[in-house]
Structure formats: structure tokens, C-alpha cells
Amino acid sequence: MNTSILLLILALIGIGSYLLGSRRAAVLSGGRPSNMHSRAGYHGSYAVIWTVLPAALILCAWLIVSPLVVTSAVRGNFPEDVRAQSEAQQSLTYGMVTSIARGLQRLTPEEMAQIDADVAAVRPLLASKGVAIAGDPQRFMIDAAQTLNTMTSTSRIAMIAVVLLAAVGGAIYALRAIAPRFRARNQVEKVILAALIVASSIAILTTIGIVLSMLTEAIQFFTMVPAHQFFFGTVWDPRFAAAGATDSSGQFGLIPLLAGTLYIGFVAMLVAVPVGLFSAIYMSEYASPRLRSVAKPLLEVLAGIPTIVYGFFALTTVGPFLRDISTQINGLATGNYANFIQAQSVITAGFVMGIMLIPYVSSLSDDIITAVPRSLRDGSLGLGATRSETIKRVIVPAALPGIVGAVLMTASRAIGETMIVVLAAGVAARLQLNPFEPMTTVTVKIVSQLTGDLEFTSPQTLVAFALGITLFAITLCLNIYALYIVRKYREQYE
Length: 494
Description:
This protein has a two-stranded antiparallel sheet. It starts with a helix and ends in a 5-residue tail after the last helix. It has helices spanning about 5-30, 40-75, 80-85, 85-105, 110-115, 120-130, 140-175, 185-225, 225-230, 255-285, 290-300, 305-335, 345-370, 375-380, 385-415, 420-425, 440-450, 460-490, and strands spanning about 235, 250. By secondary structure, it is mainly alpha-helical.
């Protein structure tokens, strides 16, 4: 019986316990639900919790611990000369044992007898069953594989028995606990509260883990490269070193990458915010329900397009178009038909990224504007204000905190974009103000520094973690500023 079937049986037992618990509560109530402290559904849910939750916890713990115990036992029975080898060599040996164990399960009793008589027959027999082995196995490997299969089978049988006994025992305990004054609702709500706490803790712990993983590697980088050279350096020249080299030669100036990130993000926001906000105002205040039902999904389709497609669009269409049109403008103005806009440039990447960000601004702002109470609109129009004046003086100020939050969330999305920048703005780390020239961003260099055969302890690789923690700090500052703006301009409406 595999794990999926066991989970199905566990679910069926849970459904049965729910039905039995609800029915028992209904019988005890005597047809009057007020006789019971909790409704019948809570008693059924209480029975499900005691049926499924302990059994599921046992199952998860067994699936985690059992392979570790079996592996330790099998490797502990290796010969002394094998156990004296390095950890890597023992892992290779154990990998061959697991392959043999998998192949032995496919053999017939006659083939097993043949293996017991002749070890050399193992490799061709397993190859005929579709199990390839790197080398000729030794006798201890065959014995270890048989032990592995036996222990795994025994562990699985024991797991099934324990899990089913826990489920049945939990169901019996819960059904016996049902009584008129039993507070089933309180018990169920405690479990739900605990589940919510666990869910929120997972999100928080994941964030903490990400930060710590980047921070520890960034600290190691700063032991090789001074922090002031990284944060205030104006030249990015990491000078990739060969694998095994720990020389910190090269310049790791953050300023060109940070300038490119903010510059491209700023251009993107210049495109996305006005278009997205105006489209949100139109769809929420002016568009008919029929037009809105068509236009809003079409606009949000932009959010579902992969960013690599936007990058191709910028590389093959927008960039060449801007380059060619700049050539024509320069020729008409000066007579010199030389382009002043590069195909890969800040304006190309910013424009295409702004198109990608339009649905983020539009969708979030539309929901926020729609949530403004109808009474505010009616009151403004009743006092003689026009629709445009109502939008400008009533609706937008009421929705301003949410709009600011939407804009800053969009800015965080723009800062973290990679593929569009790679294809539309290039990878040159330059410090300049001309939007018609190429620049690059922090995210692009994070990818490039972690790509290739580099020693993971070299500063050329560890600098990616320093860039990552810097990008995280920028996003955190944006979020803090968003909270400040929201609190400053928040207004209460009744």
C-alpha cells in the first residue's frame, strides 16, 4: 500500500467519523439543538480532528525519520574497509545499493536464486529489468540491498498499522467525548487558531530564513572586500576568477548598478502609473458595465505574459523602432543620419517594463477606487460638483492611501525585474544620465555572478549575496515609506 492510498483511507475514516459524530450529537440533543453546547457540525469536526490530525502527524514523522533510520542501519552493516572510506565514497556505494535494491524487487524467485549462486549475474539481470548499475556489485552490496528492502517493507507495514490504529483510536476517543455540555466548538476553534498561527509563522520564518541566508554570505563577502568600496564604489569590474581562486582582485562598486536599477525603474513608473491610474479611473467611474467586463480582463492579460516575451518584444521591436526613428529625426535635423538612441537603452527597457506594469497599477487602483463608499460620490454630485471634480476632489483623496500602496508595490516589482533588462538594456554597468544609452541593474548582475563554474567562496560569487541583501533593504525601505504615506494621508469615512 503506497502513501496515496493510505491518505485516501485516512480521509474516508475522517469522513465517517464526521458523520458518526454529527449523528451522535443529533441523537443526544433529542431533536432540540439548544440542549447541546455546540452544533452537531462542531461535534463532527471535533471527531475529524482527532481522527485525521494525530494520524497525519505520525505519518509525516514516520516518512521523515524512517528513511534516516534505515539508511543508518544499512550503512552501519557495511564492511570495515568500506566504512573507513570517505563520506563521498560511502555515499556512492550506498547509491549502488539502493539501485540494486530497486532492481531486486523486479526479479522472480528463480532469478533471485541465480543471483545467490553467482554474484556476476546481478548486473546483466538488473540491466534486463531496466536498472543500470555503474559497476559490478560485490556480495556485501547484494546483502545490504536485501536488508534495505526488508527494513523498508517492515517499516511501511508498521507505519500503515500505526497510522490506521491512531486514526481509529482518535475517532473512538472523540465519539466517546461527545456529550450535551461538551464544548466542541471551543476545541475546534482552538485547532483552527493553531493552524492559522502555524500558517503565518511559515511565512514569517521563510522571510527570516531568506534574509539570514543572504546575510551570512554577504558578511563573508565583506570580510574580503571592504564595505565602503562596495557601497560607494563607482566602478563595477569583478574580474571573474578561475575555480579555486580566492583573490579579491577587481572592483565591486554598487553605484552603477544601483543607478541603473533606479533609473530604469523610474522610467517604467513614468509609463505605468499615469496609464494604469487613468485606465482604472475610466473603468471604475466612466465605463459601462458591459465595456468594463470586456476591457478589464483584456488589460489584465498583460500581467499573464511571461517577462521573457516582453524582453523579446523590446529586443526585436521597440529597440529597433526607437533606434530607426532617432536616425530619421537626427537626419532631418542635422543631415547626419546617425542614431542617438541605442537599440538597448534605458528608455527601451523602461518603456517595455512600464507596459508590463500597467495591469498591476490598473487592477489594484481599480479595486481601491471601487471600494470608496457610494455615498461620497452621491454627496459630491448632489452638491453640484461635476463628475471630474468628484473624482479629483473626493474619490482620489479617499483612495489615495491605497493608490500609494499600489504604486509602491509596482515599484518593488519594477526593481526586481531581470529578463526585460537583460534583453532591452544590456549588461554594461555604466554610470551615466543619458536615457538613450544602455545600463544594467542589480538583478542582472546577481544572475551573472551566480552563473558559471566559479568557486562559491570567491568574492566574485559572494558579491551576489551582497547585492541581494541590498535589494532587499531597498524594497523594505519602500514598504516602510508606503506605510508612512498611508498613515499620513489616511482619512476615516463613515
